[in-house]
Structure formats: structure tokens, C-alpha cells
Specification:
elongated
């Protein structure tokens, strides 16, 4: 989340710098209308990137643009939303939201895998599903403070899988299943297409979806 904190902090600090120089609450004596729109746009973009379009923060910012007529007052209130979002991030209140974003992204990739499979591309579907699993394992590793690199080189997914079990991220049964899922993905990636069939890929996709749902990152 550091990059999102930085984006919010920059636009908030810039606005507060103007406030220090201004005689009025809305900064109308030190900011041109053009700069107001620029700051407003940047603030809303930072809010959207950080919390998503369906969040209460983005909804509040959008409502301000619709209901407040004065551009200077709009900016002041949007910055207020950005400040609230920043405080919540730093307090750790957006962790569950971050997990939801990850889950939505991975769900989209798994849907793409299903689409490929239904159109006869079982090998591409297996690779995409397996890659989605590997990406999720890396997110889990960050969540549980497991290193994903060793000596400057990325760790293999199997190694991350093993370490996640050691720190209690999930049970050994999941570990064994993940090893099998990664094995199927490796068969697809190395052209061993006769080692699995369409039904196994379909089960792979549904199993990975279940694992991600049970173990959010």
C-alpha cells in the first residue's frame, strides 16, 4: 500500500501548502481555477486507485462533485475524503479491502481460464489458472512475512508453499493439493499435454478458486 499512501500524501500536502499561504478557508486567493481542477482530479484519481470505485471513499468524492457547486469548496471537501482514506490506511483499516481487491483480480483470471477451457484451450487454461495460484501464493507470502526471494532470485512456488505451511498460513492438506496443482500447471507449461485432460483442468480451476476464497491475501 506504500505507493497509494504516497499518492494521497503528495496531493494532500500540496493542498495544505496552499492553505498555509491563504487568507481564506477555500484558498481562493492563492489557487487559480485551473490548479483547483488539477488538484481535484489528482485527488479523486488517487482515491479511486487506492480504494476502488465501489468504496465509500470514492462514492463520497463523487457525491461532492455532484452536490457542491463551487470548485474551491469541492476541492476542500475532496481533500477531506483523501485525508480520511489516508488515516484509515495508516491505521490498517483497509487491509480487508485490499484482500477483496486481490480476490476480485484473481477471480477475473480464473474466469478467463474457464473461458479458455470452454473454447477448447485446456492447456492455456491450465497455465493461466496455475499462474493465478502462484500469484496468490506470493500475496499470501507478503501477508505472512514469508520471503519470496532468496539470494536475489525469486523462490519457486513449491518453496513458498512449504514455508507458508510452516508459518501456519494453511494446513498440510492444502500444501499437498497445491503441489499437485502446480504440477499440472508445469505439465502444461512444458508441453506435456497428454498428462492431463479437460476435466482435470476444470477441477484445477474450481479448486484454486476455493483455496483463494478460503485463504484471502
Amino acid at each position: 500500500m506504500d505507493i497509494f499512501i504516497k499518492q494521497l500524501q503528495i496531493v494532500i500536502d500540496e493542498y495544505n501548502d496552499y492553505r498555509k499561504k491563504s487568507k481564506y478557508d477555500d484558498c481562493s486567493d492563492v489557487i487559480s481555477n485551473t490548479v483547483v481542477k488539477q488538484l481535484q482530479t489528482r485527488a479523486i484519481a488517487a482515491i479511486e486507485r487506492t480504494s476502488g470505485r465501489s468504496s465509500i471513499y470514492f462514492e463520497n468524492a463523487s457525491t461532492i462533485l455532484q452536490e457542491v457547486n463551487n470548485n474551491y469548496n469541492q476541492l476542500a471537501e475532496v481533500i477531506g475524503v483523501a485525508e480520511s482514506l489516508l488515516i484509515d490506511i495508516k491505521s490498517g483499516y483497509l487491509k480487508s479491502f485490499e484482500e477483496l481487491i486481490h480476490a476480485d483480480i484473481f477471480a477475473d483470471f480464473l474466469e478467463m481460464s474457464e473461458h479458455l477451457l470452454s473454447n477448447g484451450y485446456k492447456d492455456a487454461a491450465a497455465i493461466m489458472a496455475g499462474s493465478t495460484l502462484e500469484a496468490h501464493l506470493k500475496q499470501l507470502a507478503q501477508k505472512f512475512s514469508v520471503q519470496i526471494e532468496q539470494s536475489g532470485r525469486p523462490k519457486k512456488a513449491d518453496a513458498i508453499n512449504s514455508e507458508l505451511v510452516k508459518v501456519g498460513a494453511y494446513a498440510k492438506l492444502d500444501q499437498k493439493n497445491i503441489t499437485a496443482w502446480l504440477g499440472l500447471r508445469n505439465h502444461a507449461a512444458h508441453g506435456n499435454y497428454d498428462e492431463y485432460d479437460k476435466q482435470q483442468v476444470n477441477l484445477l480451476i474450481s479448486s484454486i478458486r476455493d483455496f483463494i476464497t478460503r485463504n484471502p491475501a
